[in-house]
Structure formats: structure tokens, C-alpha cells
Amino acid sequence: MTTAHHVADRPSEPGARSAQDVGPSDARDAVGAATALLDAYEPGRARFFASPTRTLLAHGVRAEVPHGDAPLAERVTRTLDAELLAGNPAPVVVGAVPFDHTAPAALAVPESLRWAPPLAQDPLIALPAAAPPPPAGTSGPCPSPACTARPSPRPYAACAAASSARSSSPAACG
Predict the structure, then answer these.
(1) Residue 131: which of 142, 123, 120 has the closest Cα?
(2) What's the Cα-to-Cα distance from 174 to each of 88, 169, 170, rounded to whole Å?
(3) Which residues contact 145 (CB under 8 A, 6 or more apart)?
(4) For the segment 82-133, what is each residue's pLDDT rounded down to a tens digit?
(5) Which of 22, 23, 24, 21 is nearest to 10 (CA)?
(6) pTM to 2 decimal places
(7) 3-state secondary structure string across the chain
């Protein structure tokens, strides 16, 4: 996999200064900083990335890496160069590159970017997660008896039997 980045123009370590960081630098290294990014993630509204070296949370789109016939690394480099010229002191590209090289990548320079140490180094990650909100349209826990924390093995067994018999009976897996 080819990557393109401006080593001299943006920080290479999570603790390095960046205009895209939010909050004071000591907040990035505080206990719970990585967990706070995970808690702040909103599917469809943000991009979250966790690696063995850092945790990132990006919001908004400042610029998109264009699709085209040029190699991806070249298009990323042009996007980062344009961002530097536009006054972004530390542009970063985030997004996804599909395994299918014929499918388009979804890459962008975010409006805001927060980073923290790796989740694995955050002691708060070991705490139990908050209970999920009740299903839409209800005011409490799931009202249906089918919603249980531990499903009965009978529906699973019926589904497995139907599958092994190559049955297409929807009632067996419903």
C-alpha cells in the first residue's frame, strides 16, 4: 500500500502540536482522552480511527481527495499541498481505501481533528460501557420478549438445522 504525507509539514506523534488539535496539549495525554474520543464518535457524522499508536476523531470535510485516473498517492499529495497553500498548517487525510482497487476511495481532509494516545493505553477502556439507549419509539427497555440479553438456544438450533438441511423455511429462522 502506498501512502503520501508531508512529514515536515505536520506532526508525526500524537503529542506533537497541531492547529487541528482541540484543547490544551495536556488534555490529549490525560487519563480517558482516548475513551473520550470514542464516546464522542457519532456514526455518519464523524470518522473514528484507533491504531496501536494513536486514536483519531475527525469531524466535517474541509476538502475531499478527488477521484480520478491519477494514482491515489498523487491525488492525496495534491490535496495536502492545496491545503497547505490554503493556510491549513497541518493537513491530514482520513477515510477509507477499499480493497477493490477499482472502487473509489473515500478520503477527505477534516474540518477538525482530535487525537489522543492509543485506546489500549487508556485505563478507562476497561470500564463497562454505558447501557445503550432504549429502542426508538419506546421509553424503556425493549418491550418484546424476543429482546433478551441472552437469546434462547432453540431458535439458533432450528436455524442451524434448517441450514444444514438446506431448507428455505423462513419460519425456522424467524
Answers:
(1) 142
(2) 53, 9, 6
(3) none
(4) 999 999 999 999 999 999 988 999 999 999 999 999 988 888 877 776 777 7
(5) 21
(6) 0.56
(7) CCCCCCCCCCCCCCCCCCCCCCCCHHHHCCCCHHHHHHHHCCCCCEEEEECCCCEEEEECCCEECCCCCCCHHHHHHHHHHHHHHCCCCCCCCEEECCCCCCCCCEEEECCEEEEECCHHHCHHHHCCCCCCCCCCCCCCCCCCCCCCCCCCHHHHHHHHHHHHCCCCCHHHHC
Convert 15-47 to b/e letters by CB count within 10 Å (16 or more is b).
Answer: eeebebbeeeeeebeeeebbbbbbeeeeeeebb
